[in-house]
Each structure stands twice: as structure tokens, then as C-alpha cells.
Amino acid sequence: MTDPHIPAAPDAVPGGSDAAATPPLTPPTPGAAPSAPAVPPAPPYAAPAYQPPTYQAPAYPPPAYPGAAPQPGYAPPAGYAAPPAPGYGAPYGYAPARKTNTLAIVSMIAAILGFIWVLPFVGSLAGAIMGHLSLGQIKRTGEGGRGMALTGVILGWIGVAIAVLIGVFFMIAIFYGAANGARYGSA
Predict the structure, then answer these.
(1) Residues 129, 99: contact at Cβ < 8 Å?
(2) Within a domain: residue 132?
(3) Which stretches make up the DUF4190 domain (predicted)?
(4) pTM of the prediction?
């Protein structure tokens, strides 16, 4: 195949093969040093040599840690403001984290302890009452922990209901046994 930009050799046949343009190969003589192959000249349309791009490190300001001294010789680039002084809140409008209501945490823990029968009746009742109180505080102050307060209320009242049902069952069993006059050891 021929390239229209490369001039054809004078002995090449147009439209034919390039077999006439290449000399025949002769086997090398034994003991003779092999000769280096001829390097063809560069074509006239060769592109310039590739130059890899050079990169410069960006001039970012160093990280500002509270109490850290500024680095010597550093000046912020033009158009950048100085970093905020430490201790003055989060920059760029971040919202502060909401505080979790402590009573909601205590309510949930007490209700769980009452529900798993570590503190059967007292833990459940305390969890339910403190859960109601913490829901009121959360509504008034806007603190976090509403889910924990609801967990305390729900588990607390379920635990109280289970404790009351078990207590009623034992009371019925005791009264039934006393009414029927169960006598042990009598023949």
C-alpha cells in the first residue's frame, strides 16, 4: 500500500507490489560480522518530538490546626482570605451538631433494663415516665434524641403491662390455691 504523501521510488511499479523496489536478500557469509541495517531517513512530515508537560504543585494554604504556628515564608495567594482563627466555629456555614437530650438516653436505658427483667417493674415505669418528660424537653429546646425517648416510652409501657399481667396471674394462682384448700401431706 502506498502513502500519497511519500514520493514513490523511481523503480516502483504504480499500482503493483513493492517487490521490485526491495533488493533481494543474500545469505550472510560465514564468519563475517553482521552489518547494521540501514536506517531510512525521516519522512518530511514527521511530527516534532514529544515534550511531556511540566506540572507545578498548587499553592494551597497549609492546614490550620488549633494552636499551630504559621509556616515561615508562606503567604496566601492573591484573592484568598486568611484562615479563620481557631475556636470561632466552623467556617463556610456548617451547622453545629445537635446535642442529644440526656433524659432520653437514660429513659431508653431504663426501659431496656426493665424489658429484659434486670429491673422488672421499676425500670420499665421509670423509662416510660422519663421518656414522656424528655419528649417535652425535646419539643421545647429542639435537642436531638426523639427516637431514644420514644423507645423509652414504648418499651417502658410494654414492660409495665407485662409486669402487671404476670403479677395478676400470680395473685389469681395464690387466691385459687387458698380458696380450694390445698393441703400438702394429708392423706
Answers:
(1) no
(2) yes
(3) 103-165
(4) 0.48
